[in-house]
């Protein structure tokens, strides 16, 4: 059990640091949605801008998931748990998303790593839910402040 923690916790820490960086980047762009250097500027106009802001946030979060899944899959490969990266990535993705199909499992020696990755995934999915909620809130706030100009405004 201790060996599992010594191997898994550094990967989990790396995932947390990477996710914090991604969240900081998302916050950096949508918090400044309508302000620069403390001055209010005209809100960006139109559906396309709203779509791009939300789409970029979702894309960055998904990219973060894929990288983290790949990191865990790489660890499983290094430990000799899987012969093919595709199988390792599949197991990692199912575990990260906490689906837990059970069609592929880790050996008894390393099975606690699956629980660590699942905990990592739950945390990351929760963080991204908060980030997306904040991003949607910003878009709604700016749409409410935007003068009504019909459907194209």
Characterization of this structure:
The model has no long low-confidence stretch (mean pLDDT 85). Helix 1 packs parallel to helix 4 (111-145), helix 2 packs across helix 3 and helix 2 (47-78) runs antiparallel to helix 4 (111-145). The protein has helices at 2-31, 47-78, 85-96, 111-145; strands spanning 35-36, 39-40. It has a single domain, classed as Helix Hairpins (Orthogonal Bundle). The longest helix has 35 residues, at 111-145. The chain is mainly alpha-helical. It contains four helices and two strands, in the order H-E-E-H-H-H. The radius of gyration is 20 Å and the shape is elongated. The protein has a two-stranded antiparallel ribbon with strand order 1-2. A hairpin with a 2-residue loop joins strand 1 and strand 2.
Radius of gyration: 20 Å
Structural class: mainly alpha
Would you count the extended β strands for me?
2
Which regions are unreliable across 5 or more consecutive residues at pLDDT < 50? none
Number of domains: 1
Q: Within the CATH hierarchy, at the fold level, what is the topology?
A: Helix Hairpins
Spatial strand arrangement across the major sheet: 1-2
End-to-end separation in angstroms reads 59 Å
- In the CATH classification, which architecture applies? Orthogonal Bundle
What is the highest CATH level, the class?
A: Mainly Alpha
Measured as a percent range, the helix fraction is over 70%
Largest sheet: 2 strands, antiparallel
In round numbers, the mean pLDDT is: 85
Count of helical regions: 4
Tell me the fraction of residues in β-strands, as a range: under 5%
Shape: elongated
Give the helices and strands as they follow along the chain. Answer: HEEHHH
Organism: Geopseudomonas aromaticivorans
Keywords: Ion channel, Ion transport, Membrane, Transmembrane, Transmembrane helix, Transport
Protein name: Potassium channel family protein
Domain Potassium channel: 67-136
């Amino acid at each position: 059990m201790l060996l599992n923690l010594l191997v898994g916790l550094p990967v989990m820490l790396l995932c947390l640091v990477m996710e914090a960086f991604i969240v900081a980047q998302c916050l950096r762009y949508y918090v400044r949605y309508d302000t620069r250097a403390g001055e209010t500027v005209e809100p960006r106009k139109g559906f396309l801008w709203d779509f791009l802001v939300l789409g970029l946030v979702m894309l960055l979060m998904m990219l973060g998931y894929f990288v983290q899944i790949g990191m865990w899959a790489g660890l499983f490969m290094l430990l000799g748990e899987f012969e093919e990266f595709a199988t390792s990535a599949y197991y990692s993705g199912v575990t990260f998303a906490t689906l837990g199909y059970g069609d592929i499992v880790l050996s008894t020696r390393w099975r606690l790593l699956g629980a660590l990755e699942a905990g990592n995934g739950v945390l990351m999915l929760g963080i991204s839910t908060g980030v997306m909620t904040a991003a949607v809130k910003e878009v709604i706030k700016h749409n409410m402040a935007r003068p009504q100009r019909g459907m194209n405004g």
